[in-house]
Amino acid sequence: MQLVNPIDLVEATLEFEGGGVVGDGEFECEDVLSLLNLLKDVQTLTISGWLLRGGVIFRRLDFQFNKLEKLCWIGSSIDKAKRDSLACFLNICPSLLKLSIEMNHRLSIIDCPYFHYYWHEPHLWMDCESVKSNTLQLKQLKMLRLEGFLGEEDEVLLMELLLNKAVVLESMTIA
Question: pTM, whole model, 2 decimals?
């Protein structure tokens, strides 16, 4: 994939649900990181649920999403790994104003593809309280939209984490 002027890109969608993974369903982690690095200057980003589950150490990346104002995360379900990876991903989004998390239970559940990588995000082995303490304050987040939540434990824990970290939240919608 070659983006000519990614600095001019304002909005990007990485939606691999429903068969976007080709071949044997494996990714080189460096390829995913390169793609995310190309998109680091977008203002709006929509991503699939499994994309955050690859075990990337987000805070060790040499870039942040400094211009990202709106993040939409779409998945078929929330589990511990996705919940905690999303929390850690938010650490590299210092300008985030709007966060939308959509659980679309009609999507087929697609397993996270196998990532070839040499390091793992430590949150994958932490308890929820440790993840909370390692998640930065969301100092800019003003709007939170949660859609399709069924009240399952991991969903409630994610909602609790977001409410604790969003210090200037003005609007929260649960649909």
Answer: 0.80
CA 75 vs CA 13, 60, 106, 175: distances in Å: 13, 25, 10, 15
Instruction: Give the DSSP per-residue string, 87-121.
Output: HHHGGG-TT--EEEEEE-TTSPP-PPPEEE-S---
pLDDT tens by residue, 102-111: 988 776 555 5
Best CA proximity match to 75, nearest among 27, 18, 120: 18
Distance, in Å, from the CA atom of 1 to the CA atom of 137, rounded to the nearest integer, reads: 34
> Each residue of 6-34: pLDDT tens digit?
667 899 988 765 444 444 555 556 667 77
The 3-state DSSP class for residue 54 equals: helix
User: Helices (DSSP H) in 55-95: which residue ranges?
Assistant: 80-89
